[in-house]
Each structure stands twice: as C-alpha cells, then as structure tokens.
Amino acid sequence: MKTRPLFLSMIGLSLLAGCSSKSDSYTRGIGIYPGNPNETYAPEVVADNATYRNVAELKSAYQSSSYDYNLTAQLVTDGILSAVEPATINVSTQNGNLKKNEREWLFDGKSDSKYVVNGTDVYLQLDLNNFDFSVDKIVLTGSVTLDATKTKGYEVVAYGSNDGTNWDILGQENGRGYIGKERPASPWDAFFGKSANITRLLNQEIILKQAVNYAHYKINLKAANALNWSFTDWDYYKNDELLVVLPSYRFGSAWKSAGTGEEWVYVDLGASATFDKVKLSWINKALAGTIQTSDDAKTWKEVALLPGGSEKTDEIALFAKGRYVRVWMTEAENNLPYILSELEVYGKGGLVARPHAEPKADGNHQYLSGGNWKLQRASEVNASGEEISKPDFVIDKWLIATVPGTVLSSYVNIGALPDPNYADNILTISESFFYSNFWYRNEFTLPADFSDDTIFLNFDGVNWKANVFLNGQKVGNVNGGFKRGKFNISDLLTTGKNVLAIEIVKNLHQGAVKEPTAFSHDQNGGIPGADNPTFHATIGWDWIPTIRGRDIGIWNDVFLTHTGSVTIENPFVRTELPLPDTTSAKVFVEVTLVNTSNKEVSGTLKGSFGDAEFEQTVTLASAETKVVNLDPVTNPTLALQNPKLWWPKGYGEPYLYDVKLSFETHGKISDTTQFKSGVRQMTFDEAVYEPSGLQTPFGFSEPRRLSLYVNGRRFIGFG
Predict the structure, then answer these.
(1) How far apart are CA 294 and CA 324, in angstroms?
(2) What's the chain's average pLDDT?
(3) Whole-angstrom distance, CA of residue 46 vs CA of residue 134
(4) How far apart are CA 499 and CA 475, in angstroms?
C-alpha cells in the first residue's frame, strides 16, 4: 500500500486543562460561560440601586414579532434614536408575499438559494421601502421546467412603478420556441433516465435606455408549456455595478412589528428596579395599548395607558417596580406595522457591568485582556483612529468590551442581548446592527521591566480585518480572520497611560440570514466564503443558524512582549517515522529569526525536544529575517530512539513533548518560547473500491475510498 504524508503540524499546540473532578469547576446555565470561569474576561454584572438613569439602555429586549431580521427588539434599547422609517423590502408572487426567511433568497449572492413558483403565468414583485435605488439593468436568473408535449411560446415583461398600482413597461421579450437556453448535460441524466419534461436555463436581461428609480419592480413570465419556475438571483445594476438589495446594508435603529394588531415588546432590566418615567420614541406609533411590568415575564401588571395622539414621543409619568417592562400595543397608526425606535425607562436598579481585572504580567508577556477595553459601533463615532487613540478622547457612551471575544459576545456579556444559544433568542438580535465596523479602545500602563527592551504588540486573531492605532499614530493593520499581527511599538510608548484603538472592519460579503425551522434547515453556506480567511460557517449551516456580526471582533489574545534585538517567529516542528517501524523518529525544526535592530547580530539558537538538546550558531545582518532549519543531519540528537507517540483518542496516549527554543547573544537571552509537540505521522490513500448496492454517478470513472492512517494504523474519525 502506497500512502502519502499529511503534514499536519502540532506546533504551538497548547494543552488545555483536563476536566476537573469537581463539578463546580465548570459552569452551566443560560447566559453563563460554559467553560472554566478563569478562561473568560467577560465583565461582571452587578445591581445598581443608587444611580438614577435609563435602566433600560443596553438591556435585553424581546418581541412578539419582527418584520425582518434587522428591525428587531434589540434596537429599542441600543441608545440610538431614529426618526426616519427604516429601509425594508418585500417580495411577492401571484401566490402572495414570501415568508420572512424566503424574502432575501434572490439577493443573497448564493446561486443555489432558489424560490420555486408553479404555473404557466407567474410573476415576481419587489417592493422597496425607503431605498435610494437607481437602476439601468436588471437580470433574473434561474431555470424553468417545461412539458415538451405542450405548445411552445413565451413572453417576459418587466415593469416599474412608484405606487404599486400603475406600472410602466421597462422591457419585454417573446418568442415562439422554448424560453431560455438548453441546459448542459449532467451525469445525473443517465441515472434518472429520460423524461417528457425538459429544463431550460433562464438569464433574462433587461437593459434600460436610462437609469430609473422606482419603488416597485415586477417581472411577469408566461409559457403555456411551463410546469415550474426556479428563480435563483434577481440582480440590479447601475453602470455595470451590482447593487445591494439586502436591507441589512441600510441600518435603521428601530423595531418594526410584523403585524398591526396585538403586538408587544419588552425589556429585561436584569434585576428589579423602581422607575418613574417611561419614554417611547415612535416612527409609526401605537394609538392604543398599555405599559406593563412583571417580575417573571409571565404574569404582567398594567401600570399605565399609552396616550395615543399624533406626537411621536410619549413621556409617561408613573411609579412602578419590576424587572420586566412591556409595551403592549393594540392599535397601529395608519393600520401599518408598529415602528418603535427607543424604549427608555428612568429610575434606579437593574444591572450594570463592571470590567474584569487585567491580568498581571507573566514573564515577557503582558496580556491586554479584561481591563479598560471599551467598544462602540462605528456609526456612533465621529473621529479618526488617531483621535480615538489619544488620552483625552471622550468615551462616555461606549460599552465595556470582552477581550478576547467577538463584538456580539461583548453585547451579550453586559446584558444588552439575550443568550443567542437559547430558544429563538437569536431572532431578537439585529442583523443590520452588527453589519458595521466597530471601534475598540483600551488604556494600559507598560510594566516597569518592559522599558529597556524591544516591545511588540501582538494579535493572535481578529475578524475580519483591523486597523491599529496607538497614542495618536497608526501602527498597521491585520488582514484576515486567522492571521496574526505583530508590531514593534517601542518608539510609540510612553511611561504613563498608553491608548490603543482598533477599528474592526466588517466582512465585505455579509450574505443573508439563514433561519433553520422545523421544516427546513435552510441553505448551507454562502457568499462570506469570498472573504476567507474568516469564520465562513457563521453565515449559517444545517448545524448552525446565522451568527449576527459573523464573529467580527478581537476574538483571540492581544498582548505585549519584550525581547532583545532578535526575535523567534513561527516555530514549526514535524516528525517522520520509518513506517511501519515506530521504534525511531526524525525530528525537523524550522525557526524564523528576525533581527529588529539596524546592526549585525551573532548568537546561538538553542533548543530542546524533550531531553534531546540542539543548538546552532547564527549571524543576522541588519534588519534581516532568516529561516533556520535543524534536522538529524545537522543535529544528530534530533534522531530519537523509541519515541513516545502521539495517538488520537481511543488509539493510545496523546503524548506531547516539551519544546523549548531560545536565541542567545553576548551571554543574554534575546527571545525564548516554549510549547508542546508530538511524534506522529499521518498518511492517506485513495484506493479504488467496488461499492455495494446501487452506484450513483459522481462524475468519476471509478469510485475511490479515502483512508486515513496515524502512525501506520488505520484511523476512523467520529464526531
């Protein structure tokens, strides 16, 4: 059997603490960090019964319904006032309006998101509300299934309207043959056999003589032999630029209900509070209803009536107490869905966040976790990174951030959002709110023993991209969700307060929400794959709903390190076994050395793999980066005898050796690092096999089976 090696490095693999025998070492519960509490730097939330304030601001809110995934209950407590009706869309056919989770399928950039309509005379209609949308080309793609035994002929007409009643013809096409183009042959054709039905590909392009700006667009398709139409993309262009139809790209801070009758929205203050005023900022108000309170969100007590009238702001004086405050609505203005921008509750009580303490310096590392990190949506920050990273910048309205952690988790951890992993809470979280850049800001003091060395600012992971500023100057950027960043900041630091500002740049390709239901898990994946490296699965899969914000944020550690002039970067260790013999192993070590000074530096790279020690003399020119390779030829100690092997769970002990590396010059250690690594060799083959049962066409001449091997032993993964 001939196999090929899989070079999967175990470099930098950290051993997580084993499961504690004490059950109280880990916490479980709704809204509670699921792992070891010592591993999270989330702020503490405590009661505040002394400060009179808007106790509802940045507190979890819930809804009876929402028009879409953007205008959710979260936005009534986000502290952002809006008086403008937010942008929305509606898509309908001759059968009525599409469901909320179907409405954006034609605009999500994913060609296998499709909507199927049956009939010989069908239409699609797009209604745009509060959009500025100038168009000079429209393209509708998909396919149509035709009955080849019936009469040919077709007609396609595109319309535009400003009132949804009176329509202007934008373009039309008709013919006596089949609509669309012939579909290319597929390996599945032979498998399923011939059919009286044929499938044709649609690519209906309407080019306009001049740009138009309608509030409603409609395409009517007729074919006497049509059985069903499958639409995948409905694209709009201006000057050959694809326009974004998704309303999540047009943020408006308001909750909008799905209906016009009985609807409600309520806020969870986190703990009981006493309050004397409720302020409601409407865009389309409730003409009738009540203010209610509760201690358990089950039994509600009416404490005031909604005043009605035409004023867009209701200030309701009352004296009430409770943990939950609900606005119950029964009659909508203009018989249109309720739109509420902000729900404010003034009093004392509820919960407030207190930051987690910053950890102390550990060796040559100072982790900038917890501490003074603050966070704000970029739309609410009218300043540059240079200004934000100065000590006198005012951050009164910024919230306490969890670092490391995503933007979304920061809002969850202060109580601004309910736990998105529980029930349907994720539907209360606004898609459009988190489709934004965000600013992080931190103030820190340099440890005293860092002052004489070269000091680096390190990022182990941001998503999607980051622009980094320190003490009024731009340091650099990090591009990609799994790329690390390291910056020499020695000349930018001060002996007192230092200010770090990081602009997190959102994904370029957001995609549209996928909502798994009892009837369908919705589509897997989507256009965020165009932004890789990033957290691609956050768009939604059959095992995960769409994660709001797509996990943008400072999701991994940020820390300071101090070294001498030469640093150790990207160590890589791999091992080879003379399979099937496992009584010996060769260890290969690759180390990148970087001279950060403007002088030539000579020194010794020293290291160990378990008890095997090795070293090599290295000279680096000014500002040189050099890759150093060590192996059993240059360092015979790296030829191990009777090594302890790393095995996957269930196959043996996953033994890991201690690896230590250092660079010494003039009798002083310039930089050092250590980690765990194992001796293993992974291989695979793709052998031809004879399948049992019915063989389906895979497009290959013969079926092959992938087999994996660890240390020469067949491995079958589970999970």
Answers:
(1) 5
(2) 91
(3) 50
(4) 12
